[in-house]
Structures are given as structure tokens and as C-alpha cells.
Amino acid sequence: MPDNFKDAMATFREFLRNAGLPEQIIWLSPADAVLIPGRALYIRSQPPEIGVARAHENYDRGMAAKLGVMFAALCKFENATCCFVWVPSDANEAQRSLMPKSGGLKMRAPATEFRLRVKSVRNSIYWKILQTRHREGSDLRDFLFS
Question: Residue 50: what pLDDT?
């Protein structure tokens, strides 16, 4: 089990490589994604250090709670893999999600190539319009991030 976030990232990159996915990671949260069923997954373009800092914070929170942490690959985008960190909310959710009993790291990647069109959005006004117009897809988006 990795001792810290840096080691966990190295382990996850190796996991991604073995799964045939790019090792470069774009860390996302549900707030960074708008899913339009049948069309595409739109992701908010932001500096990589913002996503890394959020992933690190979630990793530390999950490890401190001893409930486990999951690093999951969501999809491929250009030469990177879009990923997220998930932490169970309580021991019951951790058990239902088959998290390691020791509160360690779980890793997940799609078994087959996930055919999801991904588009990056740089314009903050367009991003707000997408979020507002496609609120109804938030349940499906939240499902992707669990």
C-alpha cells in the first residue's frame, strides 16, 4: 500500500499503463464535468495543479478516515486519462463498494475502451451555460463519478 499521495500516484500511473491508458492524468471532480447523454462529456479546462491539489486533499481525507480511497479512470482525452478520487462517506458505503478493509487504495479502469467523446471547455461563460442547461444530466454524471 502506498504511504503517501506521491507514491499512490506512481502506483496508479503504473496501473494505467498496464491497462493501456495514458499515464498523464487529468484529475476531475463532478463539478468539472457536464455530461450530455448521446453527445459528449464536457470538462472544464483548468490548470493541472488545481486538479492535483483537489485529488491530494481527497486522498488525505480518505486515508485519515481509514475508509479507503479509490483512484478511478473515467475516460481517455487526447494524450491523457481523465480520472477522479472517490472516498466513501462511511463504513457501510466502504463495505458496499468493496474498499480495502485496511483503508487502503483501490484502483479502477474501464475493462474495455470507454467510447465517450470528451470536449474541453476553456470559456467560463460557456461553461456556466452548459452547467445551467444540462442540470438534468447531473444524476448520470454523478453515477460516472462513483
Answer: 94
